[in-house]
What does this fold into?
Amino acid sequence: MINPNLRHRRAVIAALAVSLPFSFLAPAGPSSAASATPPRDQQAAAPSQSGHLDLGAPDQPETRTVTTLAPGLTRTAISRGTPNADFSWTAEVALPSASPDPDAPASALSTQAQAQKVADKLKEAGVAARVEHVQSPQLADAGGDLGYRVRAGAFPTKAEGTDTVSRIKAAGYTSSVIYTGWDGDQGSSENSRGPWNFQVLTIDPKDYRGQFTSSFGPNLEDRETTSQLSAAAGALAAVNGGFFTMDPKAGAPGDPAGASVHDGKLLSEPVGDRPSLVIGAKNGTSIQRLRWQGSVSAPGKGGELTLDGIDRVPGLIRNCGGVGDNPTSLPLHDITCTHADEIVEFTPEFGPSTPAGAGTEVILNAAGTVTAVNDSRGTTVPAGGKTLQAIGAEADKLASLATVGRHLKVTTELLGSNGKALKTGGGTDVVNGGPMLVENGTLNVTPKRDGMVHSNDSNSFYYGWVHKRNPRTIVGEDAQGRTLIVTADGRQTSSLGLSIKEAADVARSLGMVNAMNLDGGGSTTMVQDGQVVNSPSDATGERPVGDALLLLPARN
It folds into this structure.
């Protein structure tokens, strides 16, 4: 639900645009190049002279154009590199598993022996297939030798690869045409020529008098585009936020798949201890690994039940990471874990009604008093109140604890990186993400800890999600205490995207001392003055998302 206090009139702000020979992204003071104050229609870009992104070959051209949206708030457009004639389209083959299990799925990577076996069979069918060894940059807890892939052909256009894909399929294999510029292979990425396109918001708390916040829209269970969320709040700028549920089979679409706090209220529990962006006057802006704990009790009656989640479908845990989750209690990205015995709290922010199904649902008014105990799930959450849904063995336990007229104490607490309770007063927002990219000024990329390494899939998820270049959204803070939010366009020949390692390199070369990855891919979107300023990758256009980061104008 959008805070009604955010629906204020837009302030009229003169925009300043400059090109920097640069040292820092945002103007530092009156002596900055921004003092030239050229009009918006004179945003001529100039090559960077004193700084560049640590991305690809170091001698590439790079231009940066800065637009001032408000005092202390700038947007920098960065273009790096030139089209690379060495890149082409190629047919990549899905390799049958080398496992003896006949039901094991095909994957992009396999052993050298299996890859060679497939390549030989394709050659017999008249397809000039090749085997390529995939080595990924070593990260803090993952990377290195990923395995072998099979490809065929080199085509100037994607359409020209169609015939080869048809011949591969006729030989009994699945294939698709991909662009080699999207590879994140060790060695090749360091020498890439691009091109890349970025948008960077820089927020300087010393000068910015507006509000840095987030929004999930009218309710949690529905999705809106970043531009819709921006327009509803009257934002100067907005960027897509954290991971969320998309498939109804995985839960409620739009529901955060990780920690979420809005205006001080906890609306979704963390995934393990994955990093989150914490925004708020009391806490400042920081990146922290959050955990949580929750319980339900009846004071004076004895007994305490564990609260397993908040505002999600009981039994379905997107990205896993909770105690008792199956198949793992560790984070596991883009996987939906299950839990047969759970208690989940629902707030009015969830949506018009709670998920329907078998189990018990207890309705509590604003004072915490039980007003009803239902023997099935699905109802409206009372204004100011909450409901508790229980499934499996927890259903009878909750029904026994809750009787009409009894007061129940529902306790939820976020724990910060220091293990202490995180103070989430009014104005505090939390947006989930991962993996960590930079910590205390040093690259510390943790895909395994944060669930991007899947066992028993021949590294295929890692290959596609971490190793390969994709659109990315990055957030972090620099040594001056400024917050930077970056979008990197990708899945386009005109903008290659970033591997996770490259995302960390870009974050650090922009001066971030702490940084993490946010939701990316087709979600990656930046909006300024109601207009999308980057190039989202979904063929259907701007993707509806779960939440967005908002920069609101100063109040009059």
